[in-house]
Amino acid sequence: MTEVLYGTILSAMSTGLGALIILFIGQSMTHKWRDILLAFTAGIMMAASTMSLIPEALNAGGFLPLVVGIFLGVLTLTVLEKNIPHIDIAHNKKGIEFDEKAMLIVAAITLHNIPEGLSVGVSYASENGGDTGNLIAFAIGLQNAPEGFLVALFLVNQKISRFKAFIVATLTGTIEIFTGLLGFYLTSYVASLVPYGLAFAAGAMLFIIYKELIPESHGDGHERTSTYSFIIGLLFMILLIELF
Predict the structure, then answer these.
(1) Contact (Cβ atoms closer than 8 angstroms) between residue 184 and residue 122
(2) Which tens digits make up the pLDDT trace of 114-142?
(3) Is 89 helix (H, G, I), strand (E, B) or coil?
(4) Which of 8, 60, 140, 164 has the largest CB neighbor count within 10 A?
(5) What is the pLDDT of residues 67-111, one digit of tens each?
(6) pLDDT of residue 221
């Protein structure tokens, strides 16, 4: 219980860690570096889903639960995507007032964090809970850090003070603590849900990688650099899986 609590808190608070940068560098980070960070994160999450979550789901329940869980994860993110208009926070343009657009961004990011928190919690409930949970918490945390910075940057561009932008961006990640604990308890007490939960987490992560991270890291002419960063992130996560 202590381990899953620490894991979900550290993963969720990574959003605030990324947002913290806004207090020191403001709007000076280039698109190139943002794209490199997003692509590196995509590589981390790709390795976590394909090298850890999917094999764990197969071992726990076989192919059918894997397919069902992955499609449930993808479907959940698809529903969120369709019902909450996507706004490209990395390449947004000024001109829309805070009340109209900033609140939409905050709501969208908060809701998108729900399946990420579930992914962490479910991973701790698996057979190799400690190792798998820590790896997934690490992967999600790395994804949350640049996300937190980009949300804070967006809010600053909407004339919000840097400190308020940091606080709001940090709060968007806190929902992961509650959903992480929910995912852990559900799969801990209903063991048959574990393979579905692991596959759900993999599907959600794969959706985020292909729908969000890769397109956003290739939107400013830095495709080659981002590709290298993706591969480095992938290999880095594989190394961690092999070591731990």
Answers:
(1) yes
(2) 888 888 888 888 777 677 888 888 888 88
(3) coil
(4) 140
(5) 999 999 899 888 877 776 555 555 554 444 444 556 666 776 777
(6) 82
Three-class DSSP labels, the chain: CHHHHHHHHHHHHHHHHHHHCHHHHCCCCCHHHHHHHHHHHHHHHHHHHHHHHHHHHHHHHCHHHHHHHHHHHHHHHHHHHHHCCCCCCCCCCCCCCHHHHHHHHHHHHHHHHHHHHHHHHHHHCCCCHHHHHHHHHHHHHHHHHHHHHHHHHHHHHCCCCHHHHHHHHHHHHCHHHHHHHHHHHHHHHCHHHHHHHHHHHHHHHHHHHHHHHHHHHCCCCCHHHHHHHHHHHHHHHHHHHHHC
> Side chain identity at 79, as an amino acid letter?
V
Burial class of 212 by CB neighbour count within 10 A (0 to 12, 13 to 18, 19+): buried
Summarize the confidence of residues 185-212 as an average pLDDT.
87
* 34 neighbors 146 (Cβ within 8 angstroms): yes
| Structure tokens, 220 | 């400013």
CA-CA distance, 144 to 152, in Å (whole number)? 12
- Residue in this structure with the two tokens 């709001």, named with its chain if needed: 168
Counting DSSP H helices and E strands in the chain, the numbers are 12, 0
